[in-house]
Known about the structure:
Blueprint: E1 9-12, E2 14-15, E3 18-19, H1 20-30, E4 38-42, E5 54-57, H2 62-71, H3 111-154, H4 159-186, H5 196-204, E6 213-216, H6 225-242, E7 250-257, E8 261-269, H7 280-293, E9 297-302, E10 307-314
Parallel strand pairs: 1-4, 4-5, 6-7
Antiparallel strand pairs: 2-3, 7-8, 8-10, 9-10
Helix pairs in contact: 3-4, 3-6, 5-6, 6-7
Amino acid sequence: MDPRSYDAVLVDARLGADRGTDLIEELTSADPAAPRRCLVITGGPHDALPDGVASLAKPFRLAELLTAVRALHQPGAGGEPDHSTQATRPAGTGAPAAAPCAPCAAGPAGPVAWQLLGLTRRLRARERGELAGFLHDGPIQDLAAASLELQLLRRSVVPEQARPLDAVVKRLDAVARPLRAVVNEAGPALVPESRLAGALRQRAAWLLATPLAVDAEPACAGLAATEVAAVIDVAELMLFAMTPGLPPDEARVEVGATDDLIGITVTLVPAVGGEPASDSAAARGTLGELAAALSASVGTDFGRTLWRSWITLPRAGTG
């Protein structure tokens, strides 16, 4: 079939044992303009899709499908918007500036600590990939099929009978949103060398109710890829230690670096009128264990209106 004769090509990301992206590559080899007419329908992470190809997440509304198809012929169509810009602190929170990095008093982090971080990172990547595959092939596919069937049924009934169907579709959408969030987090991680802020927010999404704010000093641009990945791992573990209960109103991670040290500061602002849900003694204990495992120094400042902790660890290869 001549790909140039089609106005739009809708391709599922997975076609049995094959990949829909392979079909797009074949179309592109015959017609370089073909990707601009392709729409990938996927229940998996958007990160795994080709650059410049439009996508639609399952489950979706019929109106969303029509909008996505029409958008293929609009200027600038294709691909997903870039959400990697740095988050800013919401106005009026009154949170003070970040605490300076404390001097490292525990000695250099040995090779074992960095090797352990790398090993756990690879293990989690494998777990995330397997989880994404299970959710895509099971619950998300079933939800997408059920949602479309209900929407088509709605078009064939009188308005009085349609209202209960609308309520069910709305509930299916509510179930699908957290599944989609899990799949996107479980997919391939953002490239940390150039996307530190985006990768930190992606990793922390499961712990927080609002997007993580990230500040990185200009010196962080000189961090090695392994160091950036370690910053992401350590920041997530710090957030995990500090947020076992109700998610805070605001969370911020600030990263600084010198020639020898990396400093990571996590600041939490509790919900308005509330207090941090965490047990401060337990949080301090977990943070202390983390710092000891990394041969790093740790500091905490836990008050009624603001919690802050900071960990300073030697850079890789400085020990």
